[in-house]
Amino acid sequence: MVTFVDRxxxxxxxxxxxxxxxxxxxxxxxxxxxxxxxxxxxxxDIVLIADPQVTTLLSYHHSPHRAAGNGGFGMGDNRSGAAGxxxxxxxxxxxxxxxxxxxxxxxxxxxxxxxVVAPGGLGGLxxxxxANPKRxxxxxxxxxxxxxxxxVLLELKTVADVALVGFPSAGKSSLIAAxxxxxxxxxxxxxxxxxxxxxxxxAGDTRFTVADVPGLIEGASEGKGLGLEFLRHVERxxxxxxxxxxxxxxxxxxxxxxxxxxxxxxxxYPVPEGQVPLLERPQLVALNKVDVPEAKDLADMxxxxxxxxxxxxxxxxxxxxxxxxxxxxxxxxxxxxxRAEQAAAPVPERIVIRPKGSERAFWVxxxxxxxxxxxxxxxxxxxxxxxxTDFQNEEAVGYLADRLEKLxxxxxxxxxxxxxxxxxxxxxxxxxxxxxxxxxTSVAELATAPRGTDPRLxxxxxRTTSERREKYHDMMDAKAEARAQxxxxxxxxxxxxxxxxxxE
Length: 504
Fold this sequence. Notes:
It comes from Microbacterium insulae. Helices cover 29% and strands 20% of the residues.
């Protein structure tokens, strides 16, 4: 049974915006007193909240599909639709939110931090909001836009000050249970710990958090054992404690070789850009199980060599609690000094300058197709406007055309080489397909032929005088020929009738 989850993929769907309303106010003696259709409500957002009371992503592992409420439709009498209910999802402090490609969206390291991961759709405007002096009674309203829909990856990285690392069964769980109130599972077989355990330690005036990381083995950075799954929980720690088993019965193992293997795996693990590499952080060595006589002798033997390599060494026993107090106070000094350095470090002021109009409102991408080029219009505004348009309403379609023309879409299509009747698609994928019919507003802008010529004049259907005279003569000749044929048929019929009379 899964009890701890530190990585999960969420399938999210934000709320859809409600449609605007088309309505006309009716009063006594005023059957058409003006538009009064209300706006649709906005769709609900999906918000992630860093909650210190949450320690695992287990609930999202069992229920990864989450959706927010849709906005209500607008109504007559200027009544707006209700906004959709937002959905708040609590996640552990230290959760990293990524998109499906692996790019980090936000790092939720502060308790109470909020992040709108899926914004809801916009509510459509009613015909009352669309009325203006030129359009006093709109017969259409805007539709609500769909909310954001997609997948995000949640990855938990434990927020702790000190990480306990070492081989399986080195005594890490026993150590965290001895110095804190944590009660992890402890047994005499490898890989007892299947997920990181946290414990709070009080050393004098300093209180810090210790994380018990599951056992590492050789090749952990390449995916062997459980190490790779939990090495990311070491990224946020200030100091590392190498817990070395001095009473191991495994052949070929001793504290020095165990330390070399662990250091090699920590050095091979890449940390995110901007963070201190694991091997450059403060490191202490805890020689565990010195309550065993043979282990005590081995600890005394390897301690000088470890100190020569620059490590502070502590001989401890989680059974008799020998050496635990000096170890915790040493860790407390490291944590306190690190916190003081962070508090004294100046925080650079972040200034974000976003000039108005610095971002492109839209752009045209030319794509080759089987029956000619396809001109794809991309941009937030055109796509949103298409989503808001009711294509069953001709007035709404005309309103969309006006908006696109004012945005400069037609001019950009001409620059891209589009001609009347070309296929235009708005949005990615299938999008909305149009046969482009440009509006004739400026002869200079619409002249697509070489200089000095105009295809509209060359294709004129007006007949010249000679053409009209020739067609008139042809018509008169046809009439004369028809009259002659009728006269001949009349004479032939009369001759037949006269011949019949002689026989009688």
